[in-house]
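The aim of this short unit is practical: by the end, you should be able to scan a pair of folded records and say something sensible about each. We start with the first protein, listed as its amino acid sequence and then its structure tokens.
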Amino acid sequence: MLTKQVYAVERLGPLLVQARDNLRQLKLGHVRLKHADGMLGLPEAAPFDTIIVAAAAASAPQSLLDQLAPGGRLMIPLGGGEQTLRLFERTPQGIVETRFDGVRFVPLLPGVA
């Protein structure tokens, strides 16, 4: 096991139900799921060492950057038609951004459905 606790946020109710069923079958009890707006993160469980976003945003949501622990990392695809994978790291000097290769993800949408 890589970590003691994993949190996941899903904005689509049917996908959350499917994920819960899959995790139950795999007996992965250390994964906590929440039906919520992923752009807001999970402030009640912050700070996080790592945040991974699997949908593309126009820019890194400040709410997610704010939830990084010291030394924490946020990996997120950014852009519209042209997307690149970006790594944001919280250092003693502030947030440092590293740009990686081009990618193609669905858009990060606000709200829940």
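Turning to the second protein, read its sequence before its tokens, just as you did above.
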Amino acid sequence: MITVISLGGSIIAPDSVDVPFLRDFRSLIAEELAKDEKRQFIFVTGGGGPARTWQNAYREIAGAANVLDEEADWIGVMATRLNAQLIKALMGAWCTQPVITNPSEVGPFVGRVLVASGWKPGFSSDYDAVLLAERFSAPLVINLSNIEQVYTDDPRKNPGAKAIDTISWADFRAMIGGEWKPGINVPFDPVASRHAERLGLTVICAAGRNLANLRRLLSNEHFLGTVIS
């Protein structure tokens, strides 16, 4: 069984690298791999703090009138590659293949873990996760970030925002819009969402740092999160 996880940069490196989280995350993955010798994981990393910091520097220096979305996207992609190389190194002998930087050119899955980064401008690494789920016939993408569920509105700004347990792709896409902008703050990238809906893929959004909850999710037990399908 292949499990595809979009591992948000906000939990890998919100500002600097979150060493305690990554240590515990690696231990959880070790447990899961030991329980089932046929289990495989694909991790697709986001950019997190490095992406925001370097993109903001570009915007500040270049000036708003001179900022190109493609250049900002490339900066974000490079941050995802840094995080991906770290995750690959942490996976050790379980990950025998180089970091995937182009999900449209992927050979067979060798070993227990594959690690992928962002690919190119126009979307986030969520889209790469969807493409890899398609390539390896995985029915599900687990999207781990710094939010525990999708809400009807931003709960930090609107105390009346309500958590959503399940939502259709049509309703989710109407809520987030269809336009991609570098650094956009949505639970799941609109480009990735469009393709996931087309594939009939299910996406679960959950809090990445809640490893007890992730353990339940991976064991098909009751978990806290939002199911988009």
